[in-house]
Amino acid sequence: MHRAQHRLQSDVVWNSRGLVKMRMKRPLLLLMLLHLVHASQALRYSNSFYYQDLSPDGNANGEIYFSGVRLHVESPQALVSAVQGGNVTLPCVYRYEPEVSAPRRTRVKWFWQPSTGETKELHVMAAFGSRHRSYGDFRGRVRLRRSTPGDASLVINPLLSDDTGRYRCEIIDGLEDESITVELQFRGIVFPYFSPMGRYQFNFQEAKDACEQQGACLATFEQLLAAWEEENLDWCNAGWLADGTAQYPVSVPRDACGGTDLAPGVRSYGVRHKTLDHFDAFCFASLIKGEVYFLHQQHNLNFSEAVEKCVQDGAQIAKVGQLYAAWRFAGLDQCDAGWVADGSVRYPITNPRANCGPFEPGVRSFGFPPQHLKYGVYCHKVRW
Ligand SMILES: *[C@@H]1O[C@H](CO)[C@@H](O)[C@H](O)[C@H]1NC(C)=O
Ligand SMILES: *[C@@H]1O[C@H](CO)[C@@H](O)[C@H](O)[C@H]1NC(C)=O
To answer: Is the CATH number of domain 289-381 3.10.100.10?
Structure first.
């Protein structure tokens, strides 16, 4: 008893062969210790009994952890892809092993590390019992799913354009905490992009800017690889990727494209000099809220008229990334050449047919014609 009292004074954590950690008011603790000394044999079989006994109404001043009970946190999905403007559920579930019969007072916290290179984690939300709180830009857009007792999955609705990154779900049970991370990315489409000035005109920064001006961003290697694997992207000119490498995807090896000796794949020139080397770009566009449409007009338009007609229609001339996203995710199919924002003329085909370009789906391009020539126009309208 003497030793126990000594520990009691020294602090709130008492550890009997790793069986108990506790923090509570002293009289209660003393009582508890007396119990323990007499009942230590029985302890390992009666975890939940002790738990209930000590916090009958669930508001113990302290917290008790029987380390015989372990907290497990899991996510069935470490990578979640979602569509911008839609909603998403980032899975996170916890359970105790062995199961506890009494409800535990568990805290749930979600943190976010943006994919924009931020190293600091930001608060997303915190929940304790029925109380919860969301932070910053997430206020009013996040909740816990709570579909089962251990469900701490985060629902974000709607998803905004810069919500991607690494989310961390932290479950806290008194002194114990466990966390898992879930990566959120947008579903999107990779497209090759080159300058109106011609091929291989961009240094790294110019490539990055060009993608951003077209409603996209530089693709990552993983995105390019997925586009090659899943969409058979085949492009014979090297483009910058977000990691500073220049690469190109080949589905059908051919002489003009690195030769027939090499197997199909993504071919890399490796990391290149960011200011001295020049390539095209591989951009990544995710679905943007709103609609891309071909503006039906009686007469074709030159470029400046095209820009103006979209504005008159309550819209903006569509960016290349928006046209690609609308083609890929909204099935935009229009066999009419139209101006887009960068001064190129394109049209999107999902159902290939006669007189509409090659016999595979794609966004066809006429390149950058002189701006006095007349075509249709693709506009982008945001709908809230
Ligand atoms: C969330 O998105 C799904 C489609 O992914 C949709 O069916 C559902 O209605 C959306 N829920 C809400 C609350 O917006
Ligand atoms: C387009 O046509 C308008 C006249 O309708 C003219 O004022 C304008 O300069 C033309 N723009 C271009 C780029 O040729």
So the answer is: yes
